[in-house]
Amino acid sequence: MRPILLSGHERALTQVKYNPDGDIIFSVSKDHVVCAWYSHNGERLGTYHGHQGALWTVDVDPTSTLLATGGADNTMRLWEVKSGKLLKTWDFATSIKRVEFSADGKQLLGVTEKRSGHLGMIYVYEINPDVEAQQSDEHVLRIVCEDSKPTVAGFSYLAHYIIAGHEDGSVSQFDAKNGELLYNTQVHEADALITDLQWSQDRTYFITASKDKTAKISAADSLEVLKTYVADTPLNSAAITPVKDYVILGGGQAAMDVTTTSARQGKFEARFYHKIFMEEIGRVRGHFGPLNYVAVHPQGTGYCSGGEDGYVRVHHFDKGYFDFMYEVERERAQEQANL
Amino acid sequence: QDQAKKNTANKAVIEERQRMLTEWLEFRKSMREMLEEEGAEIELNNGKVIREEDGEVEEIE
């Protein structure tokens, strides 16, 4: 099926997210504007105005009621999805690089940028799901990362842990109740920035993408690396597909980092790997610049990518995608069916 | 002889895939059991929040 091109942003996309039903896509860009789109036809549903700088991050709560955003204006903001009304602004000393709700939507975390005099930190707020309610000014937790700045973070299953990816390629596991560092391990190459962290649907494992040209799946409780996907370009994003056992990787070298600007040279393709067997099974071309983010439809029916080229491309998976199976998977499925 | 070599190689690849598949399914099973013990409703519902109205099933005679 032909991809749908969402053109409305004037600058590079930084993050794209589906709502839990998968009917709406939220996108943020360096152009300061948050957009909402219908995923089935690409029609723009609305915009959220207020941020005064580049936007880095967006997340939607599990009931599609609240939207959280963060950016270079040193604020994290909470919006009502339906009306576009700004409900809350939290101010910080530096930019907000990542926001994420817990699975129940009752907590929201924000990762702040490290800058002279300020360490990278993770702030956690309790969220009242009622749009009429007053949201708390005070964080319930603040994690200071002294060794290496956090670039991405999220809540594990039951919000037991906060898992963070760092600038130095390591991953940390914090107790999400008291912020204590439980474990830190070098998942990616030393000093290879972790660019993305996305969860499996049950949040027992997650995938990290890195500038070291690999993506890895690790277990949330043990932090053991379970799978490694080797690409041929620095990665900006990695997503786990439900329904089928695949992962989707996105990246590419920025024009200023390569000698030619041809799409092939830049490797601006979404790459599909088999999640369990770790082999590349396909690529999707289309963007004219690096893929900054890939997100999968929560029901596993499609994916979208946000590019440095300013476009969001929405793809609906076709039959071949769902039918594809390795022989050993087919045999196993047959055995299960015969039980 | 070449054919025999190839078959051995294929066999090794398939055995390795079988091992990876088994290992993955065991990991998933252990995680699901852990979530059940912990009563992780949202996580076991593929990350979707269970809403009151979803649980009510209207019976039509």
From TrEMBL, chain A:
Subcellular location: Cytoplasm
Example of a GO cellular component annotation carried by this entry: nuclear periphery
InterPro entries, per database record: eIF3i, WD40/YVTN_repeat-like_dom_sf, WD40_repeat_CS, WD40_repeat_dom_sf, WD40_rpt
Broad class of the protein's primary localization: cytoplasm
Gene Ontology process terms (BP): formation of cytoplasmic translation initiation complex
Keywords carried by this UniProt record: Cytoplasm, Initiation factor, Protein biosynthesis, Repeat, WD repeat
PROSITE patterns named among the record's database cross-references: WD_REPEATS_1, WD_REPEATS_2, WD_REPEATS_REGION
Subunit structure as annotated in this protein's UniProt entry: Component of the eukaryotic translation initiation factor 3 (eIF-3) complex.
Protein name (database record): Eukaryotic translation initiation factor 3 subunit I
Organism of derivation: Paraphaeosphaeria sporulosa
